[in-house]
Structures are given as C-alpha cells and as structure tokens.
Amino acid sequence: MGQVDWKGVCDAMRTSDGVFWPMPITLSTDRVTAGGIKPNSEVALVDADNGETMATMKVAEKYSIDKAHECKSVFRTTDAEHPGVKMVMEQGEVNLAGPLKVLSQGGFPERYPGLYMTPAETRATFEKMGWSKVAAFQTRNPMHRSHEYLAKVAIEICDGVLVHSLLGNLKPGDIPAEVRTRTISTLIEKYFAPNTVVQSGYPLDMRYAGPREALLHAVFRQNYGCAYQILGRDHAGVGSYYGPFDAHRIFDEIPADALEIRPMKIDWTFWCYICGGMATARTCPHEDKDRLLVSGTKLRKALSEGEQVAAEFSRPEVLQILREHYQGLEAHERVEVKLSGHSAR
Prior knowledge:
Elements (H helix, E strand, L loop, with lengths): L2 H10 L14 E3 L1 H5 L6 E5 L6 E6 L2 E3 L3 H9 L7 H7 L4 E4 L2 E3 L5 H4 L7 H11 L4 E6 L5 H13 L2 E7 L10 H15 L5 E6 L8 H13 L4 E4 L14 H8 L8 E4 L3 E4 L4 E4 L10 E3 L2 H9 L11 H12 L18
Parallel strand pairs: 7-8, 7-10, 8-9, 10-11
Antiparallel strand pairs: 1-5, 2-3, 3-6, 4-5, 12-13, 12-14
C-alpha cells in the first residue's frame, strides 16, 4: 500500500478507491536500501529464510509512516509486549509501494498438499459438494471441545463448515501448523458426520489484532466463498488487550455494505457438569463453579507443563498427538505459557 491507502486503512478501513480493508499491508526496508532504489525501478522480494524470490515490485512510491499511529489504530495499543505492535515497531523506516508480480506461493502447496487451497479451489470444492451456504472457522490452535461445539452449531444451520487453519507465522509457544492440522484431521474423522467439514489452510501470519483482525479474516473468508464467519470469544486476541466480545461488536460498527459475509456470533462456551455437555452462557442456567471454561491457552499451558488434562477439555485422540509434540520438544524450544486476560478465568 502507498501512503494514502495506508492512512485510509488505519483511519477509516478504506483504501483511496473506497475498498473496505481493515489492516494495512506494507513492505518496509531501511533508509540506506531505500535510498538506493530509483523511482519506477523493479526490485525482487526475497524470502529471508530460504532466499527464494517471491515476487517483483515496480517501486512507485517510498514513504515513512507514524508507526505508533498504525499500532494505536489497528491494535488499540502501543504496548511493545503486544506481538503485533512488536512486529510493526521492528519494521524498517521506509515503506515501498507499487504493483507486484507474484512468482511463488512460498512453498505452501508443496508443504501442505491437499490442505493448502486457493479461493478458487475452495469455491470449486463447495460447488462439487453441493454447498451454497458455508461457515468459516478460523483457527491458529488445535480444535478443543469448545471449537468443536462452535463448528457443530454452524453445521446445524449451514451446508458445511470450512475449518481454515492459519499456516503462517505465530508467536512463540503456539502449536505449529503441521501438528495442529493433524489434530484437526483426526477430530474431523472421528467426531464429525461425513461431508460436513472441509479442512483447508491459508498462508497468513497472525497479527493478534483482535477486532480489526476479525474483519480481515472475514474479508479473506468472503473471498474463499463463505457466507458466515464463526466468532467465539476473543477472536484473534492476545492477553487482555481486547474485551472478550470486541470482535463481535466491530461487525456492528462498520457500514452495512462493507462485507457480504456475516458474523456468526456465539457466546462464552464451556463444559457444564450439571448439563452434562458443552453449553453457552445463553443456554446454560448454572453457576461458574459448575463450568469448565475451555481455552487454547489453558490447554497449551497444561500440556507444556506435563499436567493432566480433563477429559471434558479435548478429545483423547487430539490430546495424544499434542502430548507427543510436547514430549518431543528440546529444552530451548519450550516456551512458558502464561494465563492472562480472558484465558485466566
């Protein structure tokens, strides 16, 4: 994005030509490198990890930004402990903008055969299955019982659910995509009716931007052919930076014509020992002491510390895969998982 689009997206979630877009997409570099790039010259965009040329850009613009303004607008904080803020603040001083020519999909089709799908491929899959109304479930975590419940609620009113795994970079301590997608495949095979779920993945890095990122996820899922996006508690949140249902409310704050996809908002989910199953605050009349609040953070903490996990928390086949993952970690790969914000409840 150029500077005008960057500012429009930060301040009003619109590009200069009126397209709804909730988070900036920028490419930064240092001042020395930027100074050596002439206007309208073509540069290669290279993956720093493996040296692969991902795309070329015809540089139409070079500009600097107010990083604190971007963070305040997008993340609602400038706290350096926020992983998204940290990412922005560590970017170079100069942004480059211009048209791109994409040369590679980053190896994702090869790394995740049959799982990595483009929007054209998911739409073709839905058509082949006879689905016209699909709900998307975003996940950066293995699916525990709350996630399973959310997906099954959606299946009751839709033709099917796209379980859409994030395959890009995560913060330290999150479950790698290779492990997460195995657990989801097992869960779908063992606990979902046939032809009700499609599992796929897409190459986004998490920004942990809460409400703004929920909107970005919705834009993507609309492009992938979904009519609804499932929104549970603290969608795309981290720590206590956002309220548990801020991502619900932001869909009511944007213009009615901003998106075609619609949010499927679901309240706190938990296991109720008196009800004898999964429930929400809208369906269960019992007290907090009778409930087991299920969260991905709690699950990661228990597994990383070798603690027992309640049977009501996650399916045994899923837990087995996750235990094997944690048992195989080297000491330097282990990250302390802290409970904070809503996950501490």
